[in-house]
Amino acid sequence: MLGQLLLAASNSGVVRRAVSGFPLTKKVVDRFVAGESVEEARNAVERLCDAKLAVTVDHLGEETRDARAAEATANAYITLLEALKPLRLGTRGEVSVKLSAVGQRLDDAMALEHAREICAAAAAVGATVTLDMEDHTTVDSTLGILRKLREDHPSTGVAIQAYLFRSEEDCRDLSAEGSRVRLVKGAYREPASVAHQGRAAVDKAYVRCLRILMAGKGYPMVATHDDRMIAITELLADRFGRTIGDHEFQMLYGIRTDLQESLAGAGHTVRVYVPYGDDWYGYFMRRLAERPANVAFFLRALGGK
Ligand code: FAD
Question: Which domains does the chain have, with CATH numbers?
Answer without folding.
Answer: 33-279 (3.20.20.220)
